[in-house]
Amino acid sequence: MHFQLVETELSGDKTTIFTVLPEGSDETLFDKFIRENLPDFKTELIEISKTIRTIANITGAREQFFKHNEGFPGDGVCAMFDAPDKKLRLYCIRFGMCVIILGGGGHKPDGMKAFQESAKLTEENKIMRKVSSKIMVRIKEKGIRWVDEDLVGNFNFTDDE
Amino acid sequence: MSNQRAKKHSSKLITGLLNEITPQEQQRVDKRMKLAARLDEALKARGWSQKTLSERLSKSPSEISKWLSGFHNFTSDTLFDLEEVLGIGLINVSEQPVIEVVNVFSFTVRQVSQLPRIYPERERPGEVVYLTEYLDLKTQAEENKFIYS
C-alpha cells in the first residue's frame, strides 16, 4: 500500500487534521468518503464536518468524542459518527489530543451491531488498520517525530516498509 | 532526519460542506462539545469514572457515555442535577440587574435669521428662533440625522 499523509484545511489551533492520499490518486480517503455519501447523507456529512471543526479549533481530539476499539489494541483506530442518528461511520486514527488522521467509512444501517457485518465498513476499517501500523513503525523508527505537538518527518509510505 | 511538515491538500468537497454551515450552527456544536468537555473535566477532577456518575444519578452507563459524546441535547433538569452532583456551575440563573436601554438622539441646532412662516403667530420681533422647533422628528430619523445608541 503506497500512500502519503496530507494535511487538510480542517486543521485548527488545537488539532491537526490529516488524511490519506493513495499514490497515483488525486482523491484522498476523506474526499472519497464525502463523494460516496454526499447523494444520500449530505446532512450527516455536514454534522461530521461541524464536529471535526470544533475538535480542530476548540476542544482538541478528546477521547470522549470518538468510538474506540475499532482496530487492534493500541493502534489508535477509532470512529466518528454523525449526530443524532449515527447513520455514518468515519474511520480515523487519533494520536492524543493533537492529531487525527481521517480515513474512509460508510453507511451503518439501523440494527447493525458490528462493522464486520458490512463489507464496505470492514474494508475501510482494514485500510485504516494498515495505515496505522505503518505510521506506528515510522514513529518508532523516528522517521516521524513529535515537534511542538505536531508531526514532522517523512509522510510518504510504500509497501517496502 | 526530515523536519518537514505534511503537504497541505485543499479539497473542493470539504470547502463545499463547510460553506453550508452557518456561524450559528457551528456555535451550537461548539457549545455542546465544550459542555461535554467540561463534564469530562469535572469527572476527572473528582477522580470519578463514568460508572460512578451513572450510579450517583441512577442512570445507565451508556446514557452517561452519550452525554459526554458532545451530541446530547440536555434538558435543564439534567443540567441542574449534574451541577448538584459534580459541584460545578453549568447554567447561570442568578438574578442580574436589567440593563436599561436608553435611546440617545443627537442633532444639530441651527440658528436661522428668518422664521419660516409656518407658525406666524409665534413670530416675535427680536426673538431668537430655532429651526428645530419646526422639524418633524420622524422625518429627521428617517433621514438618518439622528444617532441611536
Question: Could you explain the architecture of this structure?
Answer:
- The complex is a heterodimer of chains A (161) and B (149).
- By secondary structure, chain A is of the alpha+beta class.
- Chain A is built from 3 helices and 8 strands, in the order ββααβββαβββ.
- In chain A, the strands form 2 sheets. A 6-stranded mixed β-sheet of chain A has the order 3-4-5-2-1-8. A two-stranded antiparallel sheet of chain A has the order 6-7.
- In chain A, a hairpin with a 6-residue loop joins strand 3 (77-81) and strand 4 (88-95).
- Chain A is globular, with a radius of gyration of 15 Å.
- In chain A, 45% of the residues are buried.
- By secondary structure, chain B is mainly alpha-helical.
- In chain B, 43% of the residues lie in helices and 1% in strands.
- The longest helix of chain B has 24 residues, at 23-46.
- Chain B is flat and about 90 Å long.
- Chain B starts with 6 loop residues before the first strand and ends in a 7-residue tail after the last helix.
- Residues 138-149 of chain B have low confidence and may be disordered.
- The chains are: A alpha+beta (161), B mainly alpha (149).
- At the A-B interface, strand 1, strand 2, helix 1, helix 2 and strand 7 of A face strand 1, helix 1 and helix 2 of B.
Reading the helices and strands of chain B in chain order gives EHHHHHH
Compute the separation of the termini of chain B in Å.
Answer: 61 Å
- Unreliable residue runs of chain A: none
**Major sheet attributes of chain A:** 6 strands, mixed
Question: What's the SSE blueprint?
Answer:
The complex is a heterodimer of chains A (161) and B (149).
Chain A: E1 3-7, E2 16-22, H1 29-37, H2 42-59, E3 77-81, E4 88-95, E5 99-107, H3 119-140, E6 144-147, E7 150-153, E8 156-157
Parallel strand pairs in A: 2-5
Antiparallel strand pairs in A: 1-2, 1-8, 3-4, 4-5, 6-7
Chain B: E1 7-8, H1 12-19, H2 23-46, H3 50-56, H4 61-68, H5 76-86, H6 137-142
